[in-house]
Amino acid sequence: MHLYGTQSVDEHGQLTIGGTSAVTLAKTYGTPLFVYDTALIKERARAFVQTFERAGVQAQVAYASKAFSSIAMYQLAADEGLSLDVVSGGELFTAIRAGYPVERIHFHGNNKSDEELIFALDSAIGCIVVDNFHEIEQLKRLTKYKKVNINILLRVTPGIEAHTHDYITTGQADSKFGFDLHNGQADQAFQSVKDDSYISLLGMHCHIGSQIFDTAAFSLAAKKLIVKMLDWKTKSGFICSVLNLGGGFGIRYTEEDKPLKPEIYVEDMIKSIQLEIGQENYPMPEIWIEPGRSLVGDAGITLYKIGSQKEVPGLTNYLAVDGGMSDNIRPALYQAKYDAAVANKMNFDSTTTYTVAGKCCESGDKLIEKISLPKVEAGDTLAIFCTGAYGYSMASNYNRLPRPAVIFVEQGQHRIVIKRETYEDLVRLDCSLQGENMGMQS
């Protein structure tokens, strides 16, 4: 079992996170509970940022906030000097409420509404990543009507299939995202915006997938985009000032995963870009990247209370926890794998193989298949590691389960950053058929 960041085992044989016992956190805040090791988030953020700084390369490291969005998380990212990638009006609203510097906000998404784009324009955000021709026409109409300028990147699909799960590969040609780099769509989009009075084209963006464990795919993507940049310079005299290679930097969920350090991804990216443009005497663009999972993924741990058990003789020992697919849909959606430990029995021998099941009314609600753990009892605290990305952000109220609380932990200090939902929260937006304002015709 691999421990991450500030995780350790104390003299009582209990898992500690940020200098605090996980068992104590579970008792203090209840379970399920998302715990974030903020020292690890800061360490990862600084590794990306400082590698660019040491190389003397202009860059923006934008937190891809779909991995985990909250006011506190946005404030932490802002304090670390990160830019911010948002993909909806809700994420943008949260960023504005958090006081995020608007000039460092980038708005993504393949189906932005007029209302969302107006919100972005009125907020004077730093950049909109344009995904399709419909959005180009929206922006032309809205910026002309409001007489406001906006910086944009064109999202392109470079046709690269990174070594990743089919469900989370977004850079190949057959994708719902972006303008195809090879069938003329990217050129058509470029021609449509390059001379617009209110739209300022900065350059191109791509995202080739997730959980990428080598640098070759990023280098190939950079090469493909630079070929197109050179083509635009030759034909139109246009210079791209920004090259955004997206995110997708892998993390370790289990011992099978072999991620690289942030520094290695960045250093190889810089070398690849410098090599390609150096041969053509092209000005060095500002490099943008978008780490999300790699900042928060293995900094997050979910704590559960173990409840019932069921033995299927000769097949499986089930242990059930007080959460499940409602707070971590990834095992059911992606067949994602996780590691876990019994937080109050870290020094016990692992003698029993279990399947960790959730409490949702679905036979597929299994968080981990066949993991070796110490013999467990009801009331034990189970810690599932590396749940910081796409756990809370994809959580639901299926079966009317309240979403868990979220806390930040660092140097023995811990604080709640998202309150646990209550049953009252679950019905707050419901409308009764009893009463005067039924909205029905007789």
UniProtKB/TrEMBL annotation:
<feature type="binding site">
    <location>
        <position position="248"/>
    </location>
    <ligand>
        <name>pyridoxal 5'-phosphate</name>
    </ligand>
</feature>
<comment type="subunit">
    <text>Homodimer.</text>
</comment>
<dbReference type="InterPro" id="IPR000183">
    <property type="entry name" value="Orn/DAP/Arg_de-COase"/>
</dbReference>
<dbReference type="GO" id="GO:0008836">
    <property type="term" value="F:diaminopimelate decarboxylase activity"/>
</dbReference>
<feature type="binding site">
    <location>
        <position position="334"/>
    </location>
    <ligand>
        <name>substrate</name>
    </ligand>
</feature>
<feature type="binding site">
    <location>
        <position position="390"/>
    </location>
    <ligand>
        <name>substrate</name>
    </ligand>
</feature>
<feature type="modified residue" description="N6-(pyridoxal phosphate)lysine">
    <location>
        <position position="66"/>
    </location>
</feature>
<feature type="domain" description="Orn/DAP/Arg decarboxylase 2 C-terminal">
    <location>
        <begin position="34"/>
        <end position="388"/>
    </location>
</feature>
<dbReference type="Pfam" id="PF00278">
    <property type="entry name" value="Orn_DAP_Arg_deC"/>
</dbReference>
<dbReference type="Pfam" id="PF02784">
    <property type="entry name" value="Orn_Arg_deC_N"/>
</dbReference>
<comment type="function">
    <text>Specifically catalyzes the decarboxylation of meso-diaminopimelate (meso-DAP) to L-lysine.</text>
</comment>
<feature type="active site" description="Proton donor">
    <location>
        <position position="361"/>
    </location>
</feature>
<keyword id="KW-0210">Decarboxylase</keyword>
<feature type="domain" description="Orn/DAP/Arg decarboxylase 2 N-terminal">
    <location>
        <begin position="40"/>
        <end position="296"/>
    </location>
</feature>
<keyword id="KW-0663">Pyridoxal phosphate</keyword>
<feature type="binding site">
    <location>
        <position position="330"/>
    </location>
    <ligand>
        <name>substrate</name>
    </ligand>
</feature>
<dbReference type="InterPro" id="IPR002986">
    <property type="entry name" value="DAP_deCOOHase_LysA"/>
</dbReference>
<dbReference type="InterPro" id="IPR009006">
    <property type="entry name" value="Ala_racemase/Decarboxylase_C"/>
</dbReference>
<dbReference type="GO" id="GO:0030170">
    <property type="term" value="F:pyridoxal phosphate binding"/>
</dbReference>
<dbReference type="InterPro" id="IPR022657">
    <property type="entry name" value="De-COase2_CS"/>
</dbReference>
<comment type="pathway">
    <text>Amino-acid biosynthesis; L-lysine biosynthesis via DAP pathway; L-lysine from DL-2,6-diaminopimelate: step 1/1.</text>
</comment>
<dbReference type="InterPro" id="IPR029066">
    <property type="entry name" value="PLP-binding_barrel"/>
</dbReference>
<keyword id="KW-0457">Lysine biosynthesis</keyword>
<comment type="similarity">
    <text>Belongs to the Orn/Lys/Arg decarboxylase class-II family. LysA subfamily.</text>
</comment>
<keyword id="KW-0456">Lyase</keyword>
<feature type="binding site">
    <location>
        <begin position="290"/>
        <end position="293"/>
    </location>
    <ligand>
        <name>pyridoxal 5'-phosphate</name>
    </ligand>
</feature>
<dbReference type="InterPro" id="IPR022643">
    <property type="entry name" value="De-COase2_C"/>
</dbReference>
<dbReference type="GO" id="GO:0009089">
    <property type="term" value="P:lysine biosynthetic process via diaminopimelate"/>
</dbReference>
<dbReference type="InterPro" id="IPR022644">
    <property type="entry name" value="De-COase2_N"/>
</dbReference>
<keyword id="KW-0028">Amino-acid biosynthesis</keyword>
<feature type="binding site">
    <location>
        <position position="293"/>
    </location>
    <ligand>
        <name>substrate</name>
    </ligand>
</feature>
<protein>
    <recommendedName>
        <fullName>Diaminopimelate decarboxylase</fullName>
        <ecNumber>4.1.1.20</ecNumber>
    </recommendedName>
</protein>
<feature type="binding site">
    <location>
        <position position="390"/>
    </location>
    <ligand>
        <name>pyridoxal 5'-phosphate</name>
    </ligand>
</feature>
<feature type="binding site">
    <location>
        <position position="362"/>
    </location>
    <ligand>
        <name>substrate</name>
    </ligand>
</feature>
